[in-house]
Write a structure and sequence with these properties.
homotetramer; alpha+beta; 161 residues; Thiol Ester Dehydrase, Chain A
């Protein structure tokens, strides 16, 4: 396992999507810092925002009406600095790979310039009814590749992380 | 990133600690399966049980009275099969490494023989008041090494996972 | 609004169902005590246990296979003493009323003899597909009335709380 | 127990504070609707926003630096319509009473004009170190009374709910 080193917020692609979140009292633990599973819950919400605000894909509709799931098959987090209650953080998702029936992204979480956490999230698309693998739907695939391209890395290429 | 393949529950060391958990309605999402951050929250509870029932260390006392934190600096999960509401799962923590101011463990999560998820958790010990690194306290270190030994791998050695 | 006064655990009906729960690190907030919404989440889990272990009704099956929801239309909590991490609590549900398409229960939460919280929960049964009211299914109704009777109050009567 | 009837969003005082929240995938349960304890967690976050954006009191500072807790001694919710994933809701807190060492508010939760839930929240101020009752701090009391007044009901008076 190699753990990423923090990078400043300003070094991320200017064109990347950024979702603001505030760390809440109820997200924190008796140590006074964000309880780490909540980084992942917050990242899931940031992906919902990415879909709605940037990709133009209705995340909820995709699940409820189209019956396609975007569950995670792998999720890793490196926690560099604690988040504390009241902090406003920016979550910046960068697509790393768009595969046939999966895609992978890095979620950078910054407070100001300081990176607090980096998540590596791998999603597999499934038919919810049967819980079997299904290709990334064409509209989602096109939107993901376009976003990846706008962020400055050629589709299908790893970004240096 | 290499993702582990599932292994049957019966292939884990017989002497390992096992914590039973039940997946609850409220832990699951609209896809009807465990919302993945909850695997990590459940693993944190399993570590609390490991401390209390096997290591003989009071996790809560260590935080509240001794002022020592055991926060995670890295947490990765590979989700092999979905957990569904009502499932009873066994969480089996296996220590991988005990360092100077950190320790790492694998958390195997099985439903019957079937591995549903594998988590890789790296903890750093800190002084809660200053949020600075501090050596693993001697009583905790001794207990961790003893548990690692009981599980059949020599202290300080990586287990084949 | 009248708030109930705490009553000792031993004053509850001996025949009542009791579900043990442990308060976890991750359930607590920066004040070091259980974050209050988690009392309600824990109560929902206790109702699942009541169904499985005492009523003989599969809560999850009822939702997933039979398409019947048991959502809450009202939930009130009076929090008498804080719960702290590591506490083991007993949750004792007492049915207060079984109606045509709803039922109400009190959830008593004790740590030893001391009542920490009392919840008043009103459930309405619904068809999940249409989200419309539906009568309490006959098997559930019979089980609820039997349980209420075993706890010593005549079916359909309010217990003195 | 009397349960309130829904009132349209536009009937609330124009001067009241409103906090927007979005219902997330991870907040919802297998019935596809917001898991009810999350209404209370969301309300706690809305109170944090009320403090920061309207009362000018740093909620987190009050807990972490001043050692004053604002825990709930009573919390009741009436759930009129289910919240579903993706919904944007407005949370409108209206103060009902400011006492010596406690205050009470109603939290109205609307989606458009439709009231989804109404929460009745009673807070007691405490010294966190000793967990004993303490008067509402003068700056907080003044801010609460001012807000109550701005919303159009005389300080110390119940609003018709």
């Amino acid at each position: 396992m190699s753990r990423p080193a923090p990078i400043p917020a300003s070094s991320l692609p200017a064109a990347a999507f950024r979702a603001p979140f505030r760390i809440r009292f109820g997200d924190c633990d008796p140590a006074g810092i964000l309880f780490f599973p909540n980084w992942f819950a917050m990242a899931n919400a940031a992906v919902e925002d990415l879909f709605r605000l940037r990709l133009g894909i209705d995340f909820h509709q995709m699940h409820a009406a189209r019956g396609i799931g975007t569950g995670f098959v792998h999720a890793a987090g490196t926690f560099m600095r604690p988040g504390t209650m009241g902090d406003e953080v920016l979550m910046t998702p960068l697509l790393r790979r768009v595969g046939n029936a999966s895609y992978a992204l890095d979620m950078h979480i910054h407070r100001g310039e300081e990176e607090l956490a980096r998540l590596d999230l791998v999603t597999a698309t499934t038919q919810l009814a049967t819980r079997t693998s299904t290709p990334v739907p064409p509209d989602l695939r096109a939107a993901l590749l376009r976003y990846q391209d706008e962020c400055g890395n050629a589709a299908g290429q790893e970004i240096p992380a």
